[in-house]
Amino acid sequence: MAGKIIANLVILGSGVLLRAVTQAYRQAIINGMKSGVGQEVANNVRKATLSKTMSIQEARMILGVDDKTSWDEISQKFENLYERNEKMGSFYIQSKVLRAKEALEEVHVPDEQHHQEDQHPS
């Protein structure tokens, strides 16, 4: 008989606790919607996915070049930094240098391809 009473108390207590947790969760969602937390989280996720590509300014800063630097000089600086970090074992910096070169290729290489096509028309 005592076991039956204890079992009923446990079941009743867990039901009350479950309802309280569910109600608190619903209220937290409502409060989050009112304060704009959900929108803020969505904006942060959007920024994180968009910021995977390196900006041209950051790429120039990493390689130590400016907008007037020739592609040959950029390539030399890339090779120097890449090889130096390969020897020292800094994979992170090596990766940043590679991404910087890739970002600057988008700006410089098409200009030089058009320039070569002008010199050597087919």
TrEMBL record:
<keyword id="KW-0732">Signal</keyword>
<keyword id="KW-0653">Protein transport</keyword>
<keyword id="KW-0472">Membrane</keyword>
<dbReference type="InterPro" id="IPR036869">
    <property type="entry name" value="J_dom_sf"/>
</dbReference>
<keyword id="KW-0811">Translocation</keyword>
<keyword id="KW-0496">Mitochondrion</keyword>
<keyword id="KW-0999">Mitochondrion inner membrane</keyword>
<comment type="similarity">
    <text>Belongs to the TIM16/PAM16 family.</text>
</comment>
<dbReference type="InterPro" id="IPR005341">
    <property type="entry name" value="Tim16"/>
</dbReference>
<protein>
    <submittedName>
        <fullName>Uncharacterized protein</fullName>
    </submittedName>
</protein>
<dbReference type="GO" id="GO:0005744">
    <property type="term" value="C:TIM23 mitochondrial import inner membrane translocase complex"/>
</dbReference>
<dbReference type="GO" id="GO:0030150">
    <property type="term" value="P:protein import into mitochondrial matrix"/>
</dbReference>
<keyword id="KW-0813">Transport</keyword>
<feature type="signal peptide">
    <location>
        <begin position="1"/>
        <end position="24"/>
    </location>
</feature>
<dbReference type="GO" id="GO:0031348">
    <property type="term" value="P:negative regulation of defense response"/>
</dbReference>
<dbReference type="Pfam" id="PF03656">
    <property type="entry name" value="Pam16"/>
</dbReference>
